[in-house]
């Protein structure tokens, strides 16, 4: 399973691609930053980021695109551009029929470092260790995109069957999850009896 | 000149199209709301809004797409979706080589009502009057998209030659504006001598 993680940004948008096998062994595929020129007009910057993300998606053909969830209370100067870049990543995935997952930065840090408030260098070191890299991922700020992909790969097995994440599944996945949920509840009732 | 105004939103995205002749007489062309289903996942909602906006742009072939400028301090529950919808409108325009203008809601109200804090019903009435409509524009919340287009059509003649809006021009327009600016400055020097 190929997972493409996105750390959204209008000036620098991190992209990290990993492969997860059936036993959740992870391997590194690609890391890069898609950039736009802050001197360009906003519409052309959005076009650049969209084109760069689309190119990555078409090249790596991921099974899931995992995008860092943006919050309104973030830095007021950059939050709108960050939200727009996240929107473009979701759009590009949806246009290619690829399911989108959203994980918070805290979830991603927790997944790679066991600490949701881990510092940047810790995240870089643990991403390198998990993916068996001989050095820290470069460019450094793209480590978050790899962490985002790792977070999705290592999510708890049951995480897809309920709660908020369910809304990001494809129709087939949702039907499957819903059937699994029904099976689980009736099993629960049986046990209760 | 055809201007397509966008009042961005993830659930309801207003689109208003007007035509402005050389003497700035304005006429009504089209008004509509592009919708997405709040029960859908966010990526599919963004795809719906993007497809709807792209359809309008390809049908009406506007000379400019005028998008309401979004601010980070707006309603926290909706601001990210609003910013993403605005981003999609800018993307769709840029993909078709159409210049994008951004005007604040205050500028739009000022342009149609002479009061930047005009109430919704005033905006609806004045939009109807300016465009010679026999009734208020329907759906009512699309009046803001028409106001956004009117605001762009009625902007001061010099507004394109300097300041913030210049960044939203195409390369050719920017070169022209810059040449005009140089001509203007040298004229100013001549007068001073």
From TrEMBL, chains A, B:
It is found in: Cytoplasm. One of its GO terms (cellular component) is Holliday junction resolvase complex. One of its GO terms (molecular function) is crossover junction DNA endonuclease activity. SUPFAM superfamilies: Ribonuclease H-like. Keywords: Cytoplasm, DNA damage, DNA recombination, DNA repair, DNA-binding, Endonuclease, Hydrolase, Magnesium, Metal-binding, Nuclease. One of its GO terms (biological process) is DNA repair. Its cofactor is Mg(2+). Homodimer which binds Holliday junction (HJ) DNA. The HJ becomes 2-fold symmetrical on binding to RuvC with unstacked arms; it has a different conformation from HJ DNA in complex with RuvA. In the full resolvosome a probable DNA-RuvA(4)-RuvB(12)-RuvC(2) complex forms which resolves the HJ. PANTHER family: CROSSOVER JUNCTION ENDODEOXYRIBONUCLEASE RUVC. The RuvA-RuvB-RuvC complex processes Holliday junction (HJ) DNA during genetic recombination and DNA repair. Endonuclease that resolves HJ intermediates. Cleaves cruciform DNA by making single-stranded nicks across the HJ at symmetrical positions within the homologous arms, yielding a 5'-phosphate and a 3'-hydroxyl group; requires a central core of homology in the junction. The consensus cleavage sequence is 5'-(A/T)TT(C/G)-3'. Cleavage occurs on the 3'-side of the TT dinucleotide at the point of strand exchange. This is Crossover junction endodeoxyribonuclease RuvC.
């Amino acid at each position: 399973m190929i997972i493409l993680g996105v750390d959204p940004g209008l000036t620098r948008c991190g992209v990290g691609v990993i492969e997860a096998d059936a036993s959740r062994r992870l391997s590194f595929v690609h890391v890069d930053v898609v950039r736009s020129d802050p001197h360009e007009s906003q519409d052309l910057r959005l076009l650049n980021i969209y084109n760069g993300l689309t190119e990555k998606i078409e090249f790596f053909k991921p099974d899931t695109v995992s995008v860092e969830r943006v919050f309104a209370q973030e830095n007021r100067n950059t939050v709108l551009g960050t939200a727009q870049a996240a929107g473009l990543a979701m759009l590009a995935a949806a246009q290619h029929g690829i399911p989108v997952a959203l994980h918070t930065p805290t979830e991603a840090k927790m997944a790679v470092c066991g600490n949701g408030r881990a510092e940047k260098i810790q995240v870089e070191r643990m991403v390198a260790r998990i993916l068996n890299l001989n050095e820290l991922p470069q460019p450094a700020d793209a480590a978050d995109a790899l962490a985002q992909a790792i977070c999705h790969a290592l999510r708890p097995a049951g995480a897809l069957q309920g709660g908020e994440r369910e809304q990001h599944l494809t129709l087939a996945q949702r039907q499957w999850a819903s059937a699994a949920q029904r099976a689980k509840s009736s099993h629960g009732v049986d046990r209760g009896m």
